[in-house]
Specification:
424 residues; five-stranded mixed β-sheet; 25% helix; Neutral/alkaline non-lysosomal ceramidase N-terminal domain-containing protein
């Protein structure tokens, strides 16, 4: 296997709108730390794949497809490209069609971002060299489920009994001189430690800085998990969530970074195998409007702009893109163009127990929150409010869960799976 890497800072200028929090009412005023984009080219047995990771909230689906096609046109050997967002809520808006309360994208910045990807792609292709592949898994536990049932309603508060994913997966690419060329590190938690009006890569950026300081010369690339209902465990004396600042960002980033570096002593050699598959699934929406999540929703700032966004969208069937990247006999990435809740990632690991599964959200787009069927019954933010921000005319229906699982099953069989598909 050969890999090449390249990276650069992508922090926008002050004045561009931030994405992620509806309370913001003005553009970015500064930068707490830099936003970064990394590009990797992976090559093995005639197959070549691109991987892009970046400190943005998500990638626009049409933009991703445009850049992917331009990259493949310049490099016909390329099979596919993954655009994997960290989902930081301290980055610029990078998708069109979202509710204006989440920030409006800058066309100029998106053009520059496309040019940056293609420039880094050339650099990464020129940097290809032989590597040995390794992986390891550990744990980090600063996350918590954010769906608590109170007085018959689901509210956004810490729920220790709810599902979460503490798994930390590290994939290492080591040069022939036994130095680490690059690391992928995967964790499942919303990067919502910080708020405010400064650009920040949040805890994934702090973890990356910690890793790259501990291992000079390495390029650390963060892969976000199915974190739709998972956020940092920053809880006050009343049992409610609070926003942190630089101290909390660095503390949580250090916890994750230390675990990644510790796992380098547990790394196991992987047998390289490179293949990529994809499948599209139409996702059904509810036909009956849900009860309003917000009181007096007609008078809120949210509803009028949403009504304009969905004008003419009757009968819309959003399309979920499911991608799979197998890079060894054991290590497999599943990518989703959506904000997936944690149970999907946990289900994937149960389904393929012999493989080292890495579920990745926010890949090549984001159609909205995809929840298990029981969440649709329970309600809460992910079901009753989030669809308004994504410009959807209604929430996803109970059938969505089964559609996702059938879409995963529709992909060709995994290498070395030995009929291991157990669990549902």
């Amino acid at each position: 296997m050969r890999v090449g890497v390249a990276s650069t800072e992508i922090t926008p200028p002050v004045g561009i709108q931030l994405a992620g929090y509806a309370f913001r009412d003005r553009p970015a005023e500064g930068a707490r730390d830099e936003l970064t984009m990394q590009v990797m080219v992976i090559e093995h047995d005639g197959t070549r794949v691109g991987m892009v990771t970046a400190d943005v909230i998500w990638f626009d689906a049409e933009w991703s497809d445009e850049v992917r096609r331009a990259w493949i046109a310049a490099d016909p050997q390329l099979t596919d490209v993954w655009f994997a967002a960290s989902h930081t809520h301290g980055g610029p808006q990078t998708a069109k069609g979202m509710h204006p309360l989440l920030g409006k994208p800058s066309d100029q910045y998106l053009v520059w971002l496309k040019q940056t990807v293609l420039r880094l792609a050339d650099q990464a292709a020129a940097d290809l060299e032989d590597v040995t592949l390794f992986s390891a898994q550990g744990r980090c536990s600063f996350s918590v489920n954010r769906r608590r049932l109170e007085d018959g309603r689901v509210v956004m508060k810490p729920e220790d009994s709810g599902p979460r994913d503490d798994c930390v997966t590290v994939v290492g690419f080591r040069r022939e001189d036994r130095t680490w060329k690059s690391l992928w590190f995967h964790y499942t938690c919303h990067p919502t430690v910080a708020g405010g009006y400064d650009f920040t890569a949040d805890y994934p950026g702090a973890a990356r800085r910690w890793i790259e300081t501990a291992l000079p010369g390495v390029q650390a690339m963060f892969l976000q998990g199915c974190c739709g209902d998972i956020r940092p465990r920053l809880v006050d004396e009343r049992g409610a969530f609070y926003r942190g600042g630089p101290v909390e960002v660095e503390r949580l980033g250090r916890l994750l970074g230390r675990e990644v570096v510790r796992l380098l002593t547990d790394m196991e050699t992987e047998v390289p195998y490179l293949s990529t598959e994809s499948h599209k699934v139409e996702m059904p929406l509810q036909t009956v409007a849900p009860r309003p999540f917000l009181p007096d929703i007609e008078a809120s700032r949210l509803y009028p702009a949403w009504r304009e966004l969905v004008r003419g969208k009757t009968g819309l069937r959003p399309v979920l893109h499911i991608r799979r990247l197998q890079i060894s006999e054991r290590v497999v990435l599943y990518g989703f163009s959506a904000e997936m809740t944690v149970e999907y990632g946990l289900w994937l690991r149960r389904r393929f127990p012999r493989h080292r599964i890495i579920p990745v959200g926010y890949v090549n787009g984001c159609v909205g929150y995809l929840c298990p069927a029981r969440y649709v019954d329970e309600g809460g933010y992910e079901v009753e409010e989030s669809y308004l921000y994504f410009g959807l005319p209604a929430p996803f229906s109970r059938e969505a869960e089964e559609r996702v699982k059938r879409g995963i099953a529709a992909l060709p069989g995994l290498r070395n799976d030995q009929k291991e598909e157990a669990g549902s």
